């Protein structure tokens, strides 16, 4: 049976989705609403896995199948609530927006995520961790993520022209929510960026990747982060996003106004 959504193995398969009317319509609906590219890819992937599970078109499925699939994700695959929420959001978009089904919100219930306080690194731990990053480029990008409180996707997409040393600002182009914004550029970060630039001499992207004309990937930064954590011997979980949490916490502890943070 040929599904309206072809299955795609997460992040590894080189096969593309079969272009079908339903997939095309959902893609157009997401584009009209200016959903982020990663969100669009995630939603398409989740709907494909859903269709593959039942081996039927999503158009032929209803609230009972959605419920059964959520039970499957929770009980059989034992996914975390956050992962089930991603699948649920994709199905809500498909049925509410693209297929325009007149269902009640409880027909596709959203799992409640448990609230957990993040494990925050101390300033000393951050300094020790960054010192263990063996690549200059990776150390500078992780330093930038911490010192400016950037998401890893924002740090990887910085351009040389985004560094405004006159106003002591970094321009973040199309960050989360497709919004441009400026963030603080501290003198120490500016010094680190200048030292990095003198050695690497990037032209367009501040942190270029291996593919000409493209920035470094977030996966490459994540790999460097894990490698540095092992070298640092820090038991706390460390991800690029951990540095963003540490940035906000350290500012708060230093007396910075919470509205400014």
UniProtKB/TrEMBL annotation:
- Residue ranges constituting the Tyr recombinase domain according to the UniProt record: 116-261
The answer, when asked if DNA-binding is one of the entry's keywords, is yes
User: Keywords, A to Z?
Assistant: DNA integration, DNA recombination, DNA-binding
InterPro entries (alphabetical): CB, DNA_brk_join_enz, Integrase-like_cat_sf, Integrase_catalytic, Integrase_recombinase_N, Integrase_SAM-like_N, Tyrosine_recombinase_XerCD
Q: Which PROSITE patterns does this entry report, sorted A to Z?
A: CB, TYR_RECOMBINASE
**What is the similarity comment for this entry?**
Belongs to the 'phage' integrase family.
User: What protein name applies here?
Assistant: Site-specific integrase
């Amino acid at each position: 049976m040929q599904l309206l959504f072809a299955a795609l193995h997460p992040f590894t398969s080189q096969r593309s989705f079969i272009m079908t009317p339903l997939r095309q319509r959902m893609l157009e609906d997401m584009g009209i609403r200016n959903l982020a590219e990663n969100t669009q890819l995630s939603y398409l992937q989740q709907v494909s896995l859903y269709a593959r599970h039942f081996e039927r078109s999503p158009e032929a499925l209803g609230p009972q199948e959605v419920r059964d699939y959520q039970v499957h994700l929770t009980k059989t695959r034992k996914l975390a609530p956050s992962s089930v929420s991603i699948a649920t959001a994709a199905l809500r978009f498909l049925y509410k927006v693209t297929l325009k089904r007149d269902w009640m919100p409880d027909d596709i219930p959203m799992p409640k995520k448990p609230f957990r306080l993040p494990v925050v690194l101390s300033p000393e731990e951050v300094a020790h961790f960054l010192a263990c990053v063996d690549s200059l480029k990776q150390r500078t990008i992780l330093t930038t993520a911490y010192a400016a409180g950037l998401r890893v996707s924002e740090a990887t997409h910085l351009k040389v022209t985004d560094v405004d040393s006159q106003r002591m600002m970094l321009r973040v182009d199309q960050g989360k929510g497709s919004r441009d914004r400026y963030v603080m550029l501290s003198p120490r970060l500016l010094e680190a960026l200048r030292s990095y630039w003198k050695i690497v001499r990037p032209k367009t992207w501040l942190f270029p990747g291996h593919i000409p004309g493209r920035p470094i990937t977030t996966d490459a930064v994540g790999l460097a982060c894990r490698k540095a954590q092992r070298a640092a011997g820090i038991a706390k979980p460390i991800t690029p996003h951990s540095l963003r949490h540490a940035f906000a916490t350290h500012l708060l502890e230093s007396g910075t106004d919470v509205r400014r943070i």
